[in-house]
Amino acid sequence: MTMANSLSIRDNRSGKEIELPIIEGTEGPGVLDFTKFYKEFGLFTLDPGFRSTASCKSDITFIDGDKGILLYRGYPIEQLAENSTYLEVCYLLLKGELPNQDQCGEFTKTITKHTMVHEQMLNFYRGYRRDAHPMAIMVGVVGALSSFYHDSLEIDDPRHREISAYRLLAKLPTIAALSYKYSKGQPFIYPDNSLSYSANFLNMLLSVPCQPSEISPVMVKAMDLILMLHADHEQNASTSTVRLAGSSKANPFAAISAGIGALWGPAHGGANEAVLSMLQEIGSVDRIGTFVERAKDPNDSFRLMGFGHRVYKNYDPRARILKKAAHEVLADRDRLDDPLFKIALELERIAQEDEYFKSRKLYPNVDFYSGIIQSAIGIPTNMFTVIFSVARTIGWISQWVEMISEKGQAIGRPRQLYTGHKKRDYVPLAQRKIL
Ligand code: ACO
Questions:
Q1: Cα–Cα distance between 140 and 253 in angstroms, integer?
Q2: Is 367 one of the catalytic residues?
Q3: Is 334 tagged catalytic?
Q4: Which of 390, 355, 351, 353 has the alpha carbon at shortest distance from 368?
Q5: Whole-angstrom Cα distance, residue 329 to residue 220?
Q6: CA distances (Å), 305 to each of 63, 268, 291, 325, in order?
Q7: If we measure between CA atoms, which residue out of 120, 405, 63, 363 comes closest to residue 252?
Q8: Does residue 420 contact residue 115 with C-beta atoms inside 8 Å?
Q9: Could you say which of 20, 194, 195, 419 has the lowest number of CB atoms within 10 Å?
Q10: Do 86 and 198 form a contact (C-beta atoms < 8 A)?
Q11: What does the pLDDT look like over 152-194, one tens digit per residue?
Q12: Å from CA of 279 to ligand 1 middle
């Protein structure tokens, strides 16, 4: 980080001028340091949606949205997807460097050892309605972890932060699988520590006590890839939520639970579920045109789900990797003629040639093909966002650790432009006019 330059701003009301330092990062646009702006000018800055506002400094993930580049701790996502595993990437995100062989073995052992949840936690599940959305269960149960693990809630203690990180990473697949089994009315499947992280997750989701599910290596690889590609994505809505909740010194389980709530929305993590519903609603290739026209109509609220991104104005690199993986999984499952996959491919082709999508730089995002893969490996639609939350937990916790460890960390407290009534006096009930 360097202080390379500055920008002068003149207040035309008073003629006063100040210099704002420009801070350069290692990649991407620099930032104007506005921290003294209010003190100097008595003005706040307004940027709803954070279109031009950086909310923090971070060493973890970098996106170049125009070029379609995604780096975790400097490593391109394509190289990680080709050569690495989800757990190795978790270590990288959390600790800053790829592990050596000993570190990798130790880390895997630690995470594997902590996959069970406290048996009493199962009582929480039974309190939910049977038809509860698994994301509703996730928000509650992950928050409830703070009532079980008091011994790691000293957030100013680095060892406590590390233990909480390990617990979250290890237990989230179990918590997610339990939420699914509960909603299905099937017995809970306990973790099997002889399996890899992703194989164990699939086993807890797909097996029943009387019959283990047949889980192929291609399915395991695809799950590992999905987890890896969703692991972090700099300051998106849910990560910013985790940072904001955590900035009040709330415990990490409460902060991550807040992030799960933010992820649920269809403009964010909920889009993967919405993509599959949309493809089902389109139903056949010959109906695509109607939906494309609806997506372009400014008077119709319909949008092509899985298309467009706040940061990527180019093909989302994760979508490219998942498109290839979708071919592999469908071939493995003997479903290459899957009608929804055909609709997705054709929809992408039509949208890519359409001036509306071209001019707005709307390309498939990570959610466009992930649902097709998950559906092919037997995961139901209402679990897609849950799986996203399992994957993103390592990103949330790494960003939370980074924030809490920062010197001078302060509570996040945005300002506002007030547009309500000016001060006025209370009117007793009997004297109020009928409006
Ligand atoms: N279908 C049709 N038109 C779209 C779409 C879409 N999916 N996305 C954006 N547009 C249009 C907008 O209508 C707008 O058009 P206009 O300039 O004529 O008004 C223009 O493109 C810019 O859109 P914004 O809403 O300003 O873009 P923003 O950056 O705020 O939104 C978002 C990004 C929310 C992801 C949006 O593209 C969207 O709703 N996509 C569909 C939902 C989705 O797939 N979300 C997942 C995102 S990835 C993730 O969270 C993991």
A1: 10
A2: yes
A3: no
A4: 351
A5: 10
A6: 21, 10, 11, 20
A7: 405
A8: no
A9: 419
A10: yes
A11: 889 999 999 999 999 999 999 999 999 999 988 999 999 999 9
A12: 17
